[in-house]
Amino acid sequence: MRCALSGCVRPGLTAIILCALAGSAGHSYAAETQAWDAASSLAASASPPGLRLVWNSGSEDPAAALDRLERAGFPVAVALPPHVYYVRAEGASRSLLPIGFSFQEDGRAESAARQVAVGPPDAPEPRVGAAVGVDLDPFQGRNDAFPPIRLGSSPLRNRIARGGMLQGLPFGARWFDTSEFMIGRVAVSILFPESDGTTDPNRYNWTPALRDSVIRSAVRGLAKWNGFAASHGIALSFAIEVHAGLATRYEPIDRTVAEEDNWIEDVLAGYAGYRSDASTLEYDVANAARSRLGAQWSVLLFAVQNDTDPDGAFPDGYFSHARLGGPFFVTPVNNMNSTSATLDFYIEHEIAHSFWALDEHFPSNGWWSCQLTTGYFNQPNSNSVVPAPGYCGYRRGCLMYANYPDSLCDFTQRQIGWADLDRNGIPDLTETHPAVFPDSSQYRTVAGSPITLRGKALEVAIPNQNPYHYFLGDSISIASIDSVRYRVDGGPANRAVPSDGTFDSGREWFTATLPVLPPGDYVVEWEAWNSNGLKNAESQFTTVSLRAPSAPAGAGGGASASRGLSLRVGPTPSPGPVRFTLRAPPGSRGWGRIHDVRGREVARWRLEVPSSGTADWRWEGRVAGGATLPSGLYFVSIEIDGATLKRRLVISR
User: Fold this and answer.
1) Which of 192, 216, 181, 191 has the alpha carbon at shortest distance from 86?
2) How many angstroms separate the first and last alpha carbons of the chain?
3) Are the beta carbons of 451 and 547 closer than 8 angstroms?
4) What confidence tens digit (pLDDT) does each residue in 22-73 have?
5) Residue 70: its H or E element
6) Which is it for the CA torsion 186, 506, 414, 376, positive or negative?
7) What CA–CA distance (Å, rounded) separates 142 from 322?
8) 632-640 and 643-651: which strand pairing?
9) Separation in Å, CA 338 to CA 44, 145, 305, 344, 642
């Protein structure tokens, strides 16, 4: 039975396509694809080192299941939702698992795996090479990272213009920002193309055992990255989706890399249910996956069947390869019949290219020399052996150089966004700060009613310096606004209310309601906190001036009706210089003083009101000796003809 491409079209992006594909021998895959269960195979296999398998007996929304497990204190390393979740072994406690989750060694989990298991769970791995050696070149001098996708095509331009900021993405990211830096949750869609024999002879067919082996290799390779991240204090997890039985008219391994858009377009058009160019479909499918899995980033892995291929390569000599910066990479099952690396390593290596890491080994062409820079922080590729080993001064073991899958050099770390440029031991992208902007720095009204103040909190992203974006890439932050707090005259902190009901994005509007306050001047100090646990670097203030209901209209803004006296002080907050305007009967005499919050006098003036009835003077924010006063809250006291006027003053430098 042969399945035409149109028969594989599905209405949405939420389920695996189960389509009867025809091989050259007329073999039907419908029954075996429907019966195949990757989660069961993983549950029956050994967990990667340092990880424990948690089984979820439910079938809830994948993103919700991931969030529920992580909120319970179990950071996920690699997952195949909705059932399989590998968590780091250290500190894992059975008693704290959420309802429906259980460790694999529990009888419940093992029983669940046995009930849904189909086919041999211990199927052997395909022939993908022996254990990794040292100083061997698994790519045999071949280029495996290709230049980024150009965003200049008409469909891409239209999608970019319409896309804008998408809900749920990292703050600042857009539709084509699918893998800007390797921090957070990454959706990995493993797609298994099947030739239907329409254009090319169908020479290779996927079996459940081969598909299982690819998924197990992906889990192990991605788990290595989780281990790297954990050792650097970085939150990184991978959520895998599996899509089998994706029809194409071509046999992928028989087409050159230059022709791969043809079979990729076939595969994704059948999967998505509509036709477009390959690049647009790649980004569409990647974005749909990260939306379903609640991920910040998304990468597509096209697994190509060539298990018995005599040379283990595409016709042009290439094998595993990636688009620099994503959104996809391609991995044949059999890579060059090499004995230097397993499939785990190729997946571990290629996903680094998706996050802008460059190769450091000798290629057939030297475009990734040690003088190139790449990534969000525009970091050098100084460990590369091109044009010669040590040319740029370095030669270190690294998974991007020679064959060191268990080593991650600092150059690659910085290229994928783990840079610590301020050298404080914390990656810069995990210590961004928010900013808070009240709608007004001054608020004047009549006392006697609650006061509602409004404003905006904004996550401040580090600028994107990626040279492949022409240094104009989107500036993105993985953090979101966590809370906004305010204090009145240095009192206890109160929480502002998010306008949309939840603080969960990088841009939030908020309101704060002050209780009924007596007439006078008050200073409201604002704080915004983000999910990094950091607050705004620069303080923001709102001065609230309340006049008594019986006061004349012209007495607002800090005026006092006492004995016809009035005093204006401003600006407040002030970077330093402050102007004072005192209105009093001509000839009145007195003193003006400023005290700090401890009651210490920091400035004093002798006052005498001229015949105009207005005394006006300027203070530079300095003490008598000329020293600059630090930022903070100060108190102004004017004693004139037996009356006292008091105001609050904020210095914010």
Assistant:
1) 216
2) 77
3) no
4) 333 333 333 344 457 888 888 888 899 999 999 998 888 899 999 999 888 8
5) helix 62-71
6) positive
7) 12
8) antiparallel
9) 28, 19, 16, 13, 96
